[in-house]
């Protein structure tokens, strides 16, 4: 299965550089704004999810099938954002 590249964008009153990723994700003002998903090497267009949109079926199916994810900071920031911000919005958890 082709890995799915993910890039998440967030917003917060917390200063990420001052408080660190864990405290940033736990801050009451931190929000998931959007995410872009794209099958690595695929010719089709990336899928954009914005807060309030339904979860893309392709993303949900990729997780159910045990597909891998890749991204610029997927092991650190993006993983915490997924767990702390996206899962509470209804996205399926991604196993480590």
Task: Give an account of the 3D structure.
- The structure is a single chain.
- With 96 residues, this protein is α+β, with helices and mostly antiparallel strands.
- It is 29% helix and 24% strand.
Order the strands across the largest sheet as they lie in space: 3-2-1-4
Total strand count, please?
A: 4
The percentage of residues in β strands lies in 15-25%
Give the overall shape, derived from the CA principal axes: globular
Order of helices and strands: EHHEEHEH
SS element count, helices: 4
Helix content percent band: 25-40%
The major beta sheet can be summarized as:
4 strands, mixed
Unreliable spans are: none
Rg over CA atoms, rounded to whole Å, is 13 Å
The overall pLDDT average reads: 91
Based on secondary structure, the structural category is alpha+beta
Distance between the termini: 17 Å
How is this fold's topology laid out?
Layout (H helix, E strand, L loop, with lengths): L3 E8 L4 H4 L1 H6 L4 E9 L7 E4 L6 H8 L4 E2 L6 H10 L10
Parallel strand pairs: 1-4
Antiparallel strand pairs: 1-2, 2-3
Any key phrases for this structure?
96 residues, alpha+beta, 4-stranded mixed sheet, 4 helices, 4 strands
Short overview:
The protein is an alpha+beta fold and 96 residues long. Helix content is 29%, strand content 24%.
């Amino acid at each position: 299965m082709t890995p799915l590249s993910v890039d998440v964008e967030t917003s917060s009153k917390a200063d990420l550089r001052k408080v660190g990723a864990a405290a940033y994700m736990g801050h009451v003002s931190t929000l998931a704004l959007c995410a872009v998903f794209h099958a690595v090497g695929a010719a089709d267009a990336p899928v954009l999810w914005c807060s309030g949109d339904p979860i893309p079926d392709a993303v949900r199916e990729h997780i159910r099938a045990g597909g891998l994810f890749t991204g610029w900071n997927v092991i650190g920031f993006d993983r915490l954002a997924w767990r702390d911000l996206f899962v509470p919005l209804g996205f399926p958890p991604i196993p480590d």
